[in-house]
Amino acid sequence: MKVALVGTIALIEVLIAGQAAAAQGKEIYAKVCSVCHVAGVANAPKLNDKAAWASRIKQGNDALAASVIKGKGAMPPRAGNASLSDTDIKAAVEYMIDQAR
Amino acid sequence: MFMQVFRWTVKLSGPVVIAASMLLSANAHAVPSFGRQIGMDCSGCHTVFPELNSFGRQFKLRGFTLGNALDDKKFPLNLPLSATAVASRNSTSNTNTPGAMLENFPRDAQTVLQTAGLYYGGRIAGNFGALVQYNYDGIEHTSKIEMADIRYANSTTFGNGKELIYGLTLNNNPTISDIFNTTPMWSFPHLMSDVAVMPAAKTLVDNSLFAQVGGVGVYGYWNNLLYGELAFYRRATKGLFRPFSSGVDITNVVDGYAPYWRFALQREAGAHSWMVGTYGMMADVFPDAGNPFGATNRFKDLALDGQYHYSAGDHSLSTHATWIREKQEWNASLPLGLTSNPSATLNTFRSDVHYFYKHQWGGGIQYFSTWGDADAMRYNTGQAVMGSATGSPNTKGWVFDLNYLPLQNIKLGVRYTRYDKFNGDSTNYDGMGRNARDNNTVFLYGWFMF
């Protein structure tokens, strides 16, 4: 009984954390990433363009986040916003990938 | 020379540190309106301002309209307004040569508020945006329009589904609309002393028409590869373009329409980007700006340029070069006895290389040279300091610039300009005993954007 309760609490915590990360990712996307990823500026993959995201998703979330942190093409390092932490960037990447699945 | 630089640095450091402290204590939103609009730092668009990186070029090409982050700000940060201030101190190597007068070196060796300016920078509505600057000139104590670039931009696909960005620009200086840092408006040294002694000759496209004209241009940028622009400029002394010269002394009045054109090929690969291009213009200009009637002189400017940028991690390296060749036809000035030649050529070459660490510490070196046909009537004016005893316009030298940016929107600099030749000669160039090196300057500056 005790084990089941602890497991349930842990599961709830994971779900809450996941939802918080998703909300955080959505907010960062809207604030920063959407500048280019709505219109596809300089060949940036558009948010819901599944074909454009397919090959990128195969690279994995960590590799995509690393590209954002380092900068790629016209995308400046950390998407031009140095105040974004690695966690922020990963959350935004995960949000964008979720929209393309 | 190094002790001289040290002494001047100490003299300027007081007011600059005070001003810097004020900005450092300002809130975290104290960044220009472009940055607030797109939710990015200065480094989002610049290697070090005002040099544009790849995204900065995209932002400008798209009419300064990207981003909606201003909508989330509270008044007054939701307005597309920014400000700038430049405090500087220019010290000329020798102001005491035969015939030299105080007005040759206004405010020399004095710390001055060189410029205080206000920008409209951002989207106007929809696909329309603008960068317009109005300045207070702390040297002349006047207020005037500085730069104006009002744009419409859109995009489509062309040639196998490749993106074509296209747009219109309404502006007040040929090359102000350009997206590279090789053309005169945006090339190093970016910020000039307003009081230093300047050589007698420069080409028309080399900012000689700044705020003297108004023009409309169309441009296109295809596949992040090819850039092209065609514009026509008219005098800004009357008609619709008059606001583009508001408060500015008119020294060049263009007759009719002056075409300006620009083509560039660029590539980007990882941390590297490079560009080669050409630009030019043709203009008929009245010999007397105060009496713009009758015959005109014709100027045909043709230029080649190129740039290479590398940016990765903490390191950014950039190098630029441009060569301008101007053919001058003195159809109006010759009969008036204002020139010695019916026609002449004038060339300018400039090349620079810059390095910055963490967008914070860095500097650069530039070599510059202007050369062309001698013209006794134009250049041998008999004036001390400003004249040329040989009638030659030839000038060459070096610029050394060191910078520190405590914040991305504050640039502190010390610059040494060295002339190896000035108005035709290295020694006794004015015929009264002044040498080119007497015009060497140390320029200390604090450039604040907020």
Residues in helices of chain B, as a percent range: under 10%
Order of helices and strands of chain B: HHHEEEEEEEEEEEEEEHEEE
Classify the oligomer.
heterodimer
Structural class of chain A: mainly alpha
Structure description:
The complex is a heterodimer of chains A (101) and B (450). With 101 residues, chain A is an all-alpha fold. Chain A is built from 4 helices and no strands. In chain A, α1 crosses α4 and α3 packs across α4. The longest helix of chain A has 36 residues. Chain A is globular. The model of chain A has no long low-confidence stretch (mean pLDDT 82). With 450 residues, chain B is mainly beta. Chain B is built from 4 helices and 17 strands. In chain B, strands 1-2-3-4-5-6-7-9-10-11-12-13-14-15-16-17 form a 16-stranded antiparallel barrel. Chain B starts with a helix and ends with a strand. Chains A and B meet through α1 of A and α3 of B.
Keywords:
heterodimer; A: 101 residues; 70% helix; B: 450 residues; 4 helices
Outline the secondary-structure elements.
The complex is a heterodimer of chains A (101) and B (450).
Chain A: H1 2-37, H2 50-59, H3 61-70, H4 86-100
Chain B: H1 2-24, H2 33-38, H3 54-61, E1 81-92, E2 111-125, E3 128-137, E4 142-158, E5 162-171, E6 213-222, E7 226-235, E8 254-255, E9 258-269, E10 272-285, E11 297-312, E12 315-329, E13 343-357, E14 361-372, H4 376-379, E15 395-407, E16 410-421, E17 441-449
Antiparallel strand pairs in B: 1-2, 1-17, 2-3, 3-4, 4-5, 5-6, 6-7, 7-9, 8-10, 9-10, 10-11, 11-12, 12-13, 13-14, 14-15, 15-16, 16-17
How do you describe this structure in short?
The complex is a heterodimer of chains A (101) and B (450). With 101 residues, chain A is mainly α. Chain A has four helices and no strands.
